[in-house]
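testing teh design pipeline on a random one, pls ignore if ur not involved
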């Protein structure tokens, strides 16, 4: 009788772990969409304004600022990692008892969260300066003139910060799943 109860409890744990693995898979897809959309949105940001005549123009592009370039590269790396990590996520759905691959995912998820956080935070500082400026250092707000540029850069930050929240959820879910096995 005790063997049957243990077997039933083991099947219930496997079902819960499989459910967590399915949620993990869908959260990774959401994070892929968010980071890829952020990278594309920032990477295609470009606006030109005429100055005196039609032939002389001021131009604002994402690659004018190294911080925005870092943001695009960081989001692209994280997006590529998430695509590659889908294979492990699928293996967790099929084999819900795999422990070592979950530890590997926690380590790499944490590293990608750090990369994503650094890129998004640095870009957020520049976007803040673009919106507000800094009169003490003679940095003027450019968003009154380059409104489309500022809207796109601000929008790309939303996707990146959303992906950061998803990464935190992924790390917490994997940690809880690992801790339940003991």
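output:
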């Amino acid at each position: 009788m005790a063997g049957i109860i243990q077997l039933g409890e083991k099947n219930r744990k496997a079902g819960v772990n499989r459910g967590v693995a399915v949620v993990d898979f869908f959260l990774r897809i959401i994070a892929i969409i968010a980071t890829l959309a952020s990278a594309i949105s920032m990477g295609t940001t470009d606006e030109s304004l005429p100055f005196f005549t039609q032939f002389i123009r001021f131009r604002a592009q994402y690659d004018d600022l190294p911080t925005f370039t870092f943001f695009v590269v960081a989001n692209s790396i994280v997006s590529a990692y998430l695509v590659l990590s889908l294979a492990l996520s699928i293996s967790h759905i099929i084999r819900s008892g795999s422990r070592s691959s979950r530890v590997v995912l926690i380590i790499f998820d944490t590293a990608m969260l750090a990369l994503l956080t650094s890129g998004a935070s640095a870009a957020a500082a520049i976007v803040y300066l673009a919106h507000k400026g800094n009169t003490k250092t003679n940095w003027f707000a450019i968003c009154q003139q380059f409104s489309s540029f500022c809207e796109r850069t601000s929008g790309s930050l939303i996707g990146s910060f959303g992906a950061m929240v998803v990464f935190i959820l992924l790390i917490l879910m994997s940690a809880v799943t690992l801790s339940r096995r003991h």
